[in-house]
Amino acid sequence: MRYEPAPLTRHLRVRQVRGHTVLEFRGEIDIAAAAEMAPHLDMATAEPDARVVIDLTRVEFFDCSGLRLLYRARHRTADGTGGLHLVCAHPLILRMLRITGLSRLLPPWPTLDAAMEAASEQPESASGPA
Fold first, then answer.
1. Which of 36, 45, 84, 119 has the highest CB neighbour number within 10 Å of its CB?
2. Beta-bridge partner residues of 86
3. CATH assignment of 12-121?
4. What is the DSSP letter of 78?
5. How far apart are CA 125 and CA 83, in angstroms?
6. 25 forms bridges with which residues in the sheet?
7. Rounded distance, CA 49 to CA 36, Å?
8. What pTM does this model have?
9. Cα distance between residue 14 and residue 45, in whole Å
10. 11, 33 in Cβ contact below 8 A?
11. Quick count: other Cβ atoms within 10 Å of Cβ 24?
C-alpha cells in the first residue's frame, strides 16, 4: 500500500514526485477554493529553482479564479531556474486555456507521467506538446 498525504485543503493535495512539487487541484476551483489554495501555491513557487507541476486531472469545475492561480504560478516561476508544467485533459478547461492564451505560456500535458517525462527531458523553457 502506498502512503498518500492528506490534502492541505479539500481542493489541494501537495506531494513530491521525482524532484517536483505536484499541486493536485481537486473538485470545484472557484473564488473560495482559490483563496484557500493561493498561500500553498505561493509556498511551492517561492524558490527561484522551484520545480512544480500543477495537475488538474481531478478538477470538476474551473473558473477565472483557477486561471488566476495558473497565471500566478507561471509568473512566480517564469524567471527562475526551475520550471512549471501543467497536466490537463478536460476539454472545457483546455478550451479556456486556449481562449485566454494561457496554453501558449503553460502548455498542458495529458497525464502526470507525460508532464514529468517532459520536465526531465526538455529544458524548462522549452514548449509543451505539439
1. 84
2. 54, 108
3. 3.30.750.24
4. T
5. 8
6. 12
7. 24
8. 0.86
9. 12
10. yes
11. 20
Instruction: For residue 25, give the nearest of 70, 67, 56 by alpha carbon.
Output: 56
pLDDT digits (tens, 9 = 90+) for 35-89: 999 999 999 999 999 999 999 999 999 999 999 999 999 999 998 898 999 999 9
Q: Identify residue 68 by its one-letter amino acid code.
A: R
Q: What is the dihedral of CA 119, 122, 124, 125, to 10 degrees?
A: -140
Q: Which set of grid coordinates corresponds to residue 96?
A: 479556456
How far is it, in rounded angstroms, from Cα 92 to Cα 54? 17
The helix (H) or strand (E) run that includes residue 56 is: strand 51-62
- Amino acid sitting at position 30: D
DSSP state of 7: P
